[in-house]
């Protein structure tokens, strides 16, 4: 269940991107990214969470914002450069832990009641994404929140589209959609574990 090894989605590919440009997707300044973070926060801000897990946290811009709604945030990225940036960005937040790790080995053993899947799903084959999401959903407690948000554009480094990412997740029988948003650029779904 590890990340597929296609060059464009490999750890080496991502590490090279972060070494060339500290913020290669402009996560900290792009109007699209900032609106996406606002949508994510708006979708979860109706409550607080004991522990969140954010795989693929990149440089930690969203991670930093999640901390205000969670007693604890565990975040991972498999790029050493990205995870170091996220650690520095979140160093002032005692409730945030960022590690350099990959799925599935990097999943914390701690119970989490918020799973944030943001801009990560399309880097996996459909079969691998289905396995990863099933493992996540099967391991979280009843009432836990799963928040997925993905870009709807096309990129050569994506295996599947943002819509396919969400359709695979929504097909899990243990999830119920609570809230959905869609615009020309992004799809967001908030689901609850049954």
Automatic annotation (TrEMBL):
One of its GO terms (molecular function) is S-adenosylmethionine-dependent methyltransferase activity. CDD domains: AdoMet_MTases. Keywords: Methyltransferase, Transferase. GO terms for biological process: methylation; oligosaccharide biosynthetic process. Gene3D superfamilies: Vaccinia Virus protein VP39. Pfam families: NodS. This is SAM-dependent methyltransferase. It comes from Tunturiibacter lichenicola.
